[in-house]
């Protein structure tokens, strides 16, 4: 099945005209269609992800009029995913504060005075107890974060993390960790322990990155993603919106992620939560249209990826969240806390899902598994029939 986006516009205009008459102030269907880049129309008809995106192509998609972009994203989302399924994830801070990095947005950096008290690593039993609570409340992925630059010299900590990973997997849940930079050997150990995914965000574009962080390079972040990918662990990597970046930087982030050797299994979309005491503590949250545009563009260039609403979701209205879901977002962080920031609660999310007809995605099950393959088979079958009748 193809999606002739531009051809659908004249028909819609004709229906409107028959029903309500011509609206002289509205642009013609031809002028609207002319604003829809061919690359977007081709992307919406895709039957598999591609990693050969150019930055110009991503920019053309990102700059598409928002109503058309979200419509296209919604259509493609239905090809690769069940649009009613949303994964509920819970993120626990297993080691708070004291980080040596200078990330300008982070309350856990030891360089800033934010009122956050550094703690030792949480005991394994406490973490597993929190995971059981999350599962009982409907979360199917349990994520654990530690405020470290990297895992060098942390043999005991790594041993405890592996025990946490194994324990969560034994509960039948997906498990993700974010521990800073890891090498190939550490990635293999985590894979052996049963780790589902490793989160390591790129945050923003390569060009804007030095304005946000100076203690870890962009290439070091990409190297960690490579170690995770080579170990056979799912990559979870996204960005933070509202750091002071421009549209070109959000395009750059999307292009970098979409042109990796393999698309990330998960793409978290974070909206900056300004933390007093950090260099970005006085910034305002990014406008919703920019966030929605990023979600929709991510769905287009990462069709099979889980697009995850992460930090800052608590500042969105219910209707804004649903608009993101309709544009291709299909996972949320939910629970008592998200690292050091406030988070939407389980009860609140369940009630929202019920009102709008969504349901929680199961562990280790992507609602769209097999959909893309069935589309490919359908296309091949039609081509075969056409060739036989020629």
General description of the model:
It is a single chain. With 390 residues, the chain is an alpha/beta fold. It has two domains: 1-34, no CATH class; 85-363, TIM Barrel, CATH 3.20.20. 43% of the residues lie in helices and 14% in strands. It has 14 helices and eleven strands. It has helices at 5-20, 29-34, 38-44, 55-62, 66-80, 124-136, 155-170, 184-193, 218-230, 247-258, 288-301, 318-326, 346-356, 371-389; strands at residues 85-95, 141-146, 174-178, 197-199, 234-236, 239-241, 266-271, 306-309, 331-338, 341-342, 359-360. Strands 1, 2, 3, 4, 5, 6, 7, 8, 9, 10 and 11 form an eleven-stranded mixed beta sheet that branches. Helix 10 links the parallel strand 6 and strand 7. The model is unreliable at 6-33 and 367-379 (pLDDT under 50). [4Fe-4S] cluster binds at residues 99, 103, 106. Its EC number is 2.8.1.6. It holds the Pfam family Radical_SAM. Its cofactor is [2Fe-2S] cluster; [4Fe-4S] cluster. Keywords: 2Fe-2S, 4Fe-4S, Biotin biosynthesis, Iron, Iron-sulfur, Metal-binding, Mitochondrion, S-adenosyl-L-methionine, Transferase, Transit peptide.
